From TrEMBL:
It comes from the Bacteria. It comes from Neolewinella xylanilytica. PANTHER family: L-RHAMNOSE MUTAROTASE. InterPro entries: Dimeric_a/b-barrel (IPR011008), L-rhamnose_mutarotase (IPR013448), Rham/fucose_mutarotase (IPR008000). One of its GO terms (biological process) is rhamnose catabolic process. GO terms for cellular component: cytoplasm. The keyword Isomerase applies. Pfam families: rhaM. This is L-rhamnose mutarotase. Its EC number is 5.1.3.32.
Length: 104
Protein backbone atom coordinates (compact mmCIF):
# COMPACT_ATOMS: atom_id res chain seq x y z
CA UNK A 1 0.00 0.00 0.00
CA UNK A 2 1.26 3.46 -0.96
CA UNK A 3 0.23 6.59 0.94
CA UNK A 4 -0.39 9.54 -1.41
CA UNK A 5 -0.82 13.15 -0.37
CA UNK A 6 -1.44 16.08 -2.68
CA UNK A 7 -2.55 19.70 -2.67
CA UNK A 8 -5.10 21.39 -4.93
CA UNK A 9 -6.88 24.75 -4.82
CA UNK A 10 -10.60 25.52 -4.85
CA UNK A 11 -11.81 28.99 -5.87
CA UNK A 12 -12.68 31.14 -2.82
CA UNK A 13 -16.35 31.60 -3.70
CA UNK A 14 -16.85 27.92 -4.59
CA UNK A 15 -15.78 26.09 -1.42
CA UNK A 16 -19.32 25.31 -0.27
CA UNK A 17 -20.30 23.99 -3.69
CA UNK A 18 -17.10 21.93 -3.85
CA UNK A 19 -18.01 20.28 -0.58
CA UNK A 20 -21.64 19.77 -1.65
CA UNK A 21 -20.57 18.01 -4.85
CA UNK A 22 -18.61 15.48 -2.80
CA UNK A 23 -21.49 14.67 -0.45
CA UNK A 24 -22.31 12.17 -1.66
CA UNK A 25 -19.71 11.43 -4.29
CA UNK A 26 -21.04 9.74 -7.43
CA UNK A 27 -21.37 6.00 -6.80
CA UNK A 28 -19.78 5.26 -10.18
CA UNK A 29 -16.72 7.35 -9.25
CA UNK A 30 -16.41 5.57 -5.90
CA UNK A 31 -16.55 2.28 -7.80
CA UNK A 32 -13.78 3.38 -10.21
CA UNK A 33 -11.60 4.40 -7.27
CA UNK A 34 -12.14 1.08 -5.50
CA UNK A 35 -11.57 -0.90 -8.71
CA UNK A 36 -8.23 0.89 -9.08
CA UNK A 37 -7.03 0.01 -5.59
CA UNK A 38 -7.84 3.28 -3.79
CA UNK A 39 -8.88 3.24 -0.14
CA UNK A 40 -8.92 5.55 2.85
CA UNK A 41 -9.37 8.61 0.59
CA UNK A 42 -9.99 11.99 2.24
CA UNK A 43 -9.88 15.61 1.13
CA UNK A 44 -9.49 18.43 3.66
CA UNK A 45 -10.03 22.17 3.12
CA UNK A 46 -7.96 24.98 4.65
CA UNK A 47 -10.56 27.78 4.64
CA UNK A 48 -7.90 30.46 5.14
CA UNK A 49 -6.07 29.63 1.91
CA UNK A 50 -8.66 27.59 -0.05
CA UNK A 51 -6.06 24.86 -0.28
CA UNK A 52 -7.33 21.30 -0.53
CA UNK A 53 -5.23 18.56 1.01
CA UNK A 54 -5.92 15.11 -0.39
CA UNK A 55 -4.83 11.82 1.12
CA UNK A 56 -5.37 8.35 -0.33
CA UNK A 57 -3.94 4.91 0.07
CA UNK A 58 -3.34 3.19 -3.27
CA UNK A 59 -2.37 -0.29 -4.34
CA UNK A 60 0.04 0.93 -7.01
CA UNK A 61 1.13 4.07 -8.83
CA UNK A 62 0.08 2.48 -12.14
CA UNK A 63 -3.47 1.86 -10.91
CA UNK A 64 -3.65 5.42 -9.50
CA UNK A 65 -2.54 6.87 -12.84
CA UNK A 66 -5.01 4.69 -14.75
CA UNK A 67 -7.96 6.35 -13.02
CA UNK A 68 -7.38 9.44 -15.17
CA UNK A 69 -8.03 7.41 -18.32
CA UNK A 70 -11.55 6.39 -17.32
CA UNK A 71 -14.64 8.06 -18.75
CA UNK A 72 -16.05 8.46 -15.25
CA UNK A 73 -13.00 10.37 -14.03
CA UNK A 74 -12.98 12.66 -17.05
CA UNK A 75 -16.69 13.34 -16.58
CA UNK A 76 -16.00 14.19 -12.90
CA UNK A 77 -13.19 16.56 -13.89
CA UNK A 78 -15.54 18.41 -16.24
CA UNK A 79 -18.15 18.62 -13.47
CA UNK A 80 -15.61 20.03 -11.00
CA UNK A 81 -13.71 22.30 -13.41
CA UNK A 82 -15.73 25.47 -12.64
CA UNK A 83 -14.86 25.15 -8.96
CA UNK A 84 -11.10 24.78 -8.91
CA UNK A 85 -7.79 25.37 -10.64
CA UNK A 86 -7.45 22.96 -13.56
CA UNK A 87 -5.19 22.11 -16.47
CA UNK A 88 -6.37 22.58 -20.09
CA UNK A 89 -7.53 18.93 -20.16
CA UNK A 90 -9.80 19.59 -17.15
CA UNK A 91 -7.68 17.69 -14.66
CA UNK A 92 -7.16 19.46 -11.34
CA UNK A 93 -3.89 21.28 -10.78
CA UNK A 94 -2.40 18.98 -8.17
CA UNK A 95 0.94 19.05 -6.40
CA UNK A 96 2.19 15.83 -4.84
CA UNK A 97 3.44 16.15 -1.29
CA UNK A 98 6.42 14.20 -0.01
CA UNK A 99 5.95 12.29 3.19
CA UNK A 100 8.41 13.41 5.86
CA UNK A 101 6.96 11.60 8.87
CA UNK A 102 4.65 8.66 9.55
CA UNK A 103 3.60 6.93 12.75
CA UNK A 104 1.60 3.69 12.79
Amino acid sequence: MIRKAFRMTVYPDRTEEYEDRHNPIWPELAEVLHQHGVSNYSIFLDPQTNALFGYAEVASEAQWAAIATTDTCRKWWKYMEPLMETHPDGSPVSHDLREVFHLD
